[in-house]
Amino acid sequence: MVDILNLPQLNISRILENEHDFQIHVSAIHEPSVCPHCGSVANLYKHASREQLCMDLPIHGKRAGLLIHRQRYKCRECGQTFWERLDHTIDAKRNCTKRLLAYIEKQSLKRTFVSISEDVGLDEKTIRNIFRDYVNRLEQTIRFETPKWLGIDEIHILKPRCVITNIEERTLVELLPNRNKETVIHYLQRLPNKDRIKYVTMDMWAPYRDAVQAILPGATIIVDKFHVVRMANQALETIRKELREGLSPKERRGLMHDRFILLKRKHELSDMEQITLQAWTKNHASLGTAYELKESFFDIWESESRQMAVLKYQDWKARIPSNLEHAFKPLLKALTSWENEVFAYFDHPITNAYTESLNSLIRVINRLGRGYSFEALRAKILYTEGLAKVRKPKYQKRKFTASSELTEHDYQMFHQLSLPSVVREEPHEQLLGIDISTLIEKLEKGDL
Q1: 289, 322, 346 - which closes a domain
Q2: Containing domain of residue 268, as a range?
Q3: pLDDT value of residue 380
Q4: pLDDT reported for residue 423
């Protein structure tokens, strides 16, 4: 019988095939010689048998089921019975070959559970359980370096999820299932070398601040300036939408189309856009005032010191007319509650510089996420090979030892290069997290 399995422990006795599947009848090649219970040698006899179906890797695009003739033995010495062991080939927990198990683990980070189930012939629930065990094992072995500059942000995958980033390295470190205070605290508590974290940037979400203050009291909290200045744009949008109610249908459509001009910085406008802006702001005084307030609020963030920024903010706040206070109220309230963290930016000008990339990531993941659970998407992002950013260790002379010296064979390999004495040392690379730009590139190409 032709060996199409390449499994040395099994002997093929029969092969059946139909449109979708192979059924391969096999049995163990070697009979046991030692009782696993008492260690008695050559004192065994056969004691019943059974057939066990075990799935293997697909063959020629068809599912492959191994119908294994399993023999039971009894020991004359101790009277115990046992089934012949195929531990090197079969995974008893999942009732499949170990190589199929490894295949499913890798595929579960790339494909949906349903498609894998149809491919290999195992139940979808079994695929899901294999994936869960695999991810749990990866979480125990893959550790990203605790960053000095920690970023806490959020991303919407079905609902808001907390994103942990390494700002210095522009990498993604963790995706949490929600943005609750308890969830963030639990994550921060488990971080190794927590004292390494000196700065934490975040948006103005109180549970983030509470969690950091509870677990990292020595870290400086800095509100990401992009989350702050964005609120000035939102205030301008409030005025624009209120103004729209009193316009004709044609003017309303025009204001809707030109809203992007209003949200642009003045120095970024083209000549034509400046003419359009002047037309709107001269004809509608409240819109013009709101635009100037938006622009001057952005200017605060160009201050050279914290003291100067605070003075500019106080002056800016005093210039808000009473008829526009309602639109800027959310911004004023936020600055009151987060004043220290907001103006800490001017002492430590750190931002979530990956914000634009993260927004692109949100769009791609939302598109792909319809076929995956959050747990599957998290695993695809954090554990797919080739995505992690790695820092190689520095060259250190003292780390080399006599035990790492090359053999004579190694010297012969290097002889033609005329190298001096060379010694071998195992590198200790540091995983810095998932490179966001690489992740987006692979997602957009469909490589994940």
Answers
A1: 346
A2: 226-346
A3: 81
A4: 42
Mean predicted confidence (pLDDT) in 296-307 = 94
The total of other beta-carbon atoms located within 10 Å of residue 363's CB is 12
Tell me whether residue 83 is in a domain. Answer: yes
14 domain-assigned? yes
Q: Is 428 exposed, middle or buried (0-12, 13-18, 19+ CB in 10 A)?
A: exposed
- What is the CB neighbour count within 10 angstroms for residue 74? 17
CA distance 378 to 136: 12
Distances (CA, A) of 370 to 90, 105, 271, 363, 367: 34, 21, 43, 12, 7
Distance CA(407)–CA(286), nearest Å, equals 82
**How many Cβ atoms from other residues are within 10 Å of residue 180's Cβ?**
14
Kind and range of the H or E run holding 49 = strand 44-59
> CA 374 to CA 337: how far, in whole Å?
33
Q: Exposed/middle/buried for 306, CB within 10 Å: 0-12, 13-18, 19+?
A: middle
pLDDT band at 266 (very low <50, low <70, confident <90, very high): confident
3-state SS, residue 67: strand
Beta carbons within 10 angstroms of residue 149's beta carbon: 19
Cβ atoms of 121 and 63 closer than 8 Å: yes
Q: Is residue 143 part of a domain?
A: no
Final residue before a domain boundary, out of 346, 365, 381: 346
Q: Rounded to a whole number, what is the distance in angstroms from the first to the last CA of the chain?
A: 40
Helix axes 124-141, 374-383, angle to 10 degrees: 40
> What is the total count of domains within the chain?
2
Note whether residue 202 is domain-resident. Answer: no
Q: Cα–Cα distance between 203 and 352 in angstroms, integer?
A: 10
User: Which residue, among 147, 152, 146, 166, has the nearest Cα to 209 in the 3D structure?
Assistant: 152
116-171 pLDDT per residue, tens:
999 999 999 999 999 999 999 988 888 888 999 999 988 877 788 898 999 888 88
Which two three-digit tokens encode residue 126? 């079994």
